[in-house]
Every structure is written in structure tokens, then in C-alpha cells.
Amino acid sequence: MRITLEPGGLDLETAPGETILDAARRQGFDAPNSCRNGNCHVCEAVLLHGRVKLPDSREAGPGEEIFTCVAEPLEDCALHWEGILAPGQLPVRKLACQVVECSPIGGDVWRVRLRTPAGKPLRYHPGQYLLLERDGAEPAAFSIASAPSEERMLELHILTRDPVTQAVIDYLQQHKVARIQAPFGEACLSELPDQPLVLIAAGTGLAQMQSIVEQCLQQGFAHAIHLYWGVRHSDDLYEAPHWQRWQQAPNLYLHRVISDQPDWPERQGMLHQAVCEDIADLADYRFIVSGSPAMVYGTLDALVASGMPEDHMLADAFAYAPRQP
């Protein structure tokens, strides 16, 4: 039977005679449970549609509360089940962090380092982002540049060329405490792939890639990693904290590309052009892209046209700015 789980829109399949909780656990879901006999109520959910069999051959229908540890579906069902997480998904947490560093690193970019509370390490996948909260303002999203192995330390790269991001820096310098929610984002590595990687970053999209590169190097990723970092002008390049050390990694290939500066002595052009010049068979690689929606979709179209399977690319823009049909 197919079970749809709301509010996350997750799906799982149950075998004949299998309870919903057992099916969820078998398929790698992180599901709230304790006693597994319907007494503790931890696994409670609301049946939205469909029918399930309960102990003593009783049945439950839409609108009824059920305990997933003893409920066996009789047909395809939908549940409202709070607290269940898909395989690899991590719980979103709210934390108040100490501002350890807030300093300019060139190109109007500031490096911000936050320390999470002792005893409360934040679990996140490399490549995910956080929301930074301020009084009287909408939360602002920033990629986490640090690797999960850095435990209590979180790093952000914030470009201050608009009033909103400049206000964020001013707020952090004044208050010395940052309230965050994390983690978010699906353009990340919940586990290392068994394929080489191409990481494509525009501007401070490098922060997202820094987290991924650091995690790969620390875990001994054996495949090639091509990192393409693009800006419009060389003045937009900022001090990437680990760039010099990365140059010593034997399987990491670094490419800086300038798009709008004819006198730039190194590589010029668009990021997707550089990728296509360097890599003959794009189907052999996995891609993660960070940039504006226009940049992401332009890169997607160009690489697909050059042979990349569309499902080989991850980008957060696919979720927050979906392309209209």
C-alpha cells in the first residue's frame, strides 16, 4: 500500500500485514515511537483518507487519530504525522549563537563565524543553509560555509551590496548574538557520491561549495572535484579562506572565471562554458550549482544541451524559484 505523509509530502510503501511504523523504519524514515504497542501515543497520526486495521480487527477511517505502530493499511492512505523525517533529512532547530567573528574579506563580502551553544551541536549536511533572524525583519538565508565536522562553529559569507545584508552585518556587530534556524536545503551531500563532482558557484555561492569541499577532503573522497567560481569582475573576488590549501589537494581542480573584464589575464567567460570546455562527458559527473535563479537555469539548460542528464544537477533555486511550465 502507498502511504502519503503530510505535512512533508513524503511517501512510503507498506508490505501486506505490516504496520505503518514498521514500514517507515524499514525504509529509513526517522519516525517518533516508543512502546510500539499503541500505549504511549508517541507515534500518533491523523488519518486523512483511506482505511487502516487496528488491534482486535477494528477499522479506522478519515479524520480519526491512529497509532502507527499498530495500524495496518487496508488501502492507499494519507496521514498527518508530525515529527517524521525522510531518510537523510535532519530536524530544523532554533539556536542562539555567539558571534565570534565579523570581518571584511574583500569584494564587499564579510566572513561571519558563529558558535552554537555548548552541548547543542547542529546537525546539517554539507551544502545546506540557515535562516538568520532579526527583530522586525524577515529571516535572511545564508549558505553554511563550514563543514559539519567543525561541530560548534558555523561560517557564513555575506555580500553587503544591498541594505538588507548590510543591516544584517550591522545587527551582528551590535548584538553579538545571532538567532538562527537550520538546516534547510536539498542541494547538499547527505552522503558522498560514487561519482566525480562539479561544483559551480557564482559570487558568495562559494560558501556552499566550501562546506562540500571541506567535507569531501576530510572524508577522503577519492573522485575528482572540479570547483568553478565565477564573478563579473576581479574586484568581486574575495579571500576564500581555504583556497591556498585546496590548491595542494591532488583530486581538487580549482577554476576562477571572470565574465565581464576583458583585461583579466586568466580565464574569462561564462561558468557553463568553462565546464563544457574542460569536461568531455558530462554524464559521468554529479553537479551542484549555487547562484541566482537566472544563473542556475541558464547553467542547467546549457549543460543539458551538452549532454548532462537533467537529474544530475542539484540547486536550491529549483525549490525556492521553480521554473514555470
UniProtKB/TrEMBL annotation:
Pfam families: Fer2, NAD_binding_1
InterPro entries documented for this protein: 2Fe-2S_ferredoxin-like_sf (IPR036010), 2Fe-2S_ferredoxin-type (IPR001041), Beta-grasp_dom_sf (IPR012675), FAD-bd_FR_type (IPR017927), FNR_nucleotide-bd (IPR039261), MRET (IPR050415), OxRdtase_FAD/NAD-bd (IPR001433), Riboflavin_synthase-like_b-brl (IPR017938)
FAD-binding FR-type domain residues: 92-190
MF terms (GO), sorted A to Z: iron-sulfur cluster binding; oxidoreductase activity
Source organism, top-level taxon: Bacteria
Residue ranges annotated for the 2Fe-2S ferredoxin-type domain, each copy included: 1-85
UniProt entry keywords in alphabetical sequence: Luminescence, Oxidoreductase
Biological-process GO terms, alphabetical: bioluminescence
Similarity remark: Belongs to the Fre/LuxG FAD/NAD(P) flavoprotein oxidoreductase family.
The protein's name: CDP-4-dehydro-6-deoxyglucose reductase
